[in-house]
Design goal:
Organism: Amycolatopsis speibonae
Keywords: Hydrolase
CATH superfamily: Alpha/Beta hydrolase fold, catalytic domain
Order of helices and strands: EEEHEHEHEHHHHHEHEH
Strand order of the largest sheet: 1-2-4-3-5-6-7-8
Number of strands: 8
Strand content: 15-25%
GO molecular function, one term: hydrolase activity
Protein name: Alpha/beta hydrolase
Helix content: 25-40%
Mean pLDDT: 92
Radius of gyration: 18 Å
Structural class: alpha/beta
CATH architecture: 3-Layer(aba) Sandwich
Pfam families: Abhydrolase_6
Length: 301
């Protein structure tokens, strides 16, 4: 399906991305944030495209390039952190809302991996535009020691590029969970990873996630894959991570069997994306109900 490029001015810099169309009137605006080592094309891999599914089901989906990826300008030196990335994307989504928000109930963030960490940062900021909920996957709060050690042993003076065989081993599940050509199909969206992102996701992020998550006041959908090679995966880790969102009105947490870290490229990607869009629809449907309850409470008092 044809996509349209998006360019947003943010404090003299550009945040770019792609959209599959305006969607149905009244549907929430879905904004997707990719992880490390991929650009916005992560959500538009042939046969696994969230943008295509959004267009087919009436949801306007915009996949953004995070700062320093794709067509988005990098953050200035010393500011390439999750917090500053969230600040830039908060402003960019505000611009998106100005242009695409008319007649819509609000925005739902769908995010993967490092993008999920940044989505939590954005939600914790409580943005001025109407955030309805966040659907995050491919992120946890404890990485295996060999992953932490590997990232910390990387050369500090250059970005990291994972070779295809390492990308296949770390980011995808067993052969039965993916099509044989998926790594090649996703290659067009692959980029190098700033080492700072890899160090922050195994350093500051695990230390700060509980405090950040406790500041999130919108619904949360959380998914961690059975074969995720970057996180410690079991039911207790899923429950612990979900439990950080103490202020969210509700949390839907799930350990997803039959997939690896890049859930969006596995054979069950359509099921994942349909669940995410259903979550977006539920978040939007609850807005009038919450508003009505507020009005009724005002009448009682």
């Amino acid at each position: 399906m044809t996509t349209t490029r998006v360019d947003l001015p943010v404090d003299g810099r550009r945040i770019a991305g792609a959209t599959s169309g305006a969607g149905t009137t009244g549907a929430p605006l879905v904004v997707a944030l990719h992880g490390g080592g991929y650009n916005s094309g992560y959500f538009d891999v042939p046969g696994h495209s969230l943008l295509d599914l959004g267009a087919a089901t009436g949801f306007p989906v915009v996949s953004l390039d995070r700062p320093g990826y794709g067509g988005s300008d990098p953050l200035p030196g010393g500011r390439a952190t999750f917090g500053h990335g969230a600040e830039a994307l908060d402003a960019a989504i505000g611009e998106l809302w100005t242009h695409y928000g008319e007649g819509r109930p609000g925005v739902v963030l769908v995010a993967h991996s490092i993008g999920s960490a940044i989505a939590v940062h954005i939600a914790a900021r409580r943005p001025r535009w109407p955030l309805l909920g966040i659907s995050i996957h491919g992120v946890g709060d404890r990485s295996p020691e060999h992953i932490v050690g590997a990232w910390r042993a990387m050369p500090t003076d250059e970005p990291v590029e994972l070779p295809p065989e390492q990308r296949r081993a770390l980011l995808y599940g067993p052969a039965g969970t993916v099509d044989a050509d998926v790594v090649e199909l996703a290659k067009a969206s692959v980029e190098t990873v700033p080492l700072g992102e890899m160090l922050e996701i195994v350093g500051d992020w695990p230390r700060n996630v509980a405090k950040l998550a406790a500041a999130v006041v919108v619904p949360v959908q959380y998914t961690l894959a059975e074969y995720d090679g970057l996180w410690i995966v079991d039911e207790s880790r899923v429950a612990t991570f979900a439990g950080h969102f103490t202020s969210a009105p509700w949390v839907d947490a799930r350990l997803q069997a039959g997939a690896g870290h890049n859930l969006d490229h596995h054979r069950l990607s359509r099921a994942l994306h349909l669940r995410q869009l259903a979550f977006a629809s539920e978040c939007a449907a609850r807005v009038p109900a919450a508003r009505d309850q507020t009005v009724d409470s005002a009448k009682i008092t």
